[in-house]
Amino acid sequence: MQQPGDRPDADHGDRADAADRPGTITPPATFAVAGLMDAGTLRALASNVAGAVGDAAANRPVPEPCRRSADALAVDDLTVSWIAPPTHRLTVCASSAAARTLDDWQFSLDEGPCLDAVRRNVPSGAEVADPDATPWPLLAAKALDLGYAAIAGVPIALGAASFAAINLQSRSGPIAMVTTELATALAAALAHPLAEALSGTLTYDRVVGSDLLSQATGMVSVQMGVTVAEALNVLRARAWSEDRLLNAIAGDVVDRRLRFALPGDDAGEAEE
Which residues contact 132 (CB under 8 A, 6 or more apart)? Predict the structure, then answer.
């Protein structure tokens, strides 16, 4: 299992190349937060977020740490997400139910600013009024349905390796550059305490042994005789076609309400 701080193994790209991609935010080279947020405030916010890992891993979501961070950054909503491709992720905290839902959709659809930020190690964001004009049209449409006007992701990294992201959501218009600057400063303050909290909490048994998506992906891999990556794509395609979250489809597979097989297999695809 990938550990916090390990670099995701897909769509790496270096920072220089990534900065030219659509949706990429290129903030100033230095993040001047003097007068906007002092170091003590940043450390306190980071400590609160890192402290939410245990509750998140136990499926006891605590919105308060992300709500405080959203208020401090003057943005409507904020989530913090850990990502370990292909199947592992954790919403550490989300400031609202809508923000958590959007985070779930981002992973289900395999597109969005959070994933781009982690894969490319640069901030990524866009307004969503015209979903087709964004780098992530499917997610942008979901964000628009949830009442958001703009979304962004800021990587949380140890050195050059991104392992998590801060997600920003605005309901009133574009996300200000100063908000992205502050989020980047928060990400820097959060990197070490978050990595330590994840390493101390997400044991093999708690993440791999009990993770619904991992179980479902393994089952589909066996049923269809395909790789884990291909099985995950099958599950994502099914979720997209039914406009359901990925974990909902995974639950059907694990509970044996849904099974997959290769075309022509007598067992076929069954749904009870």
Answer: none
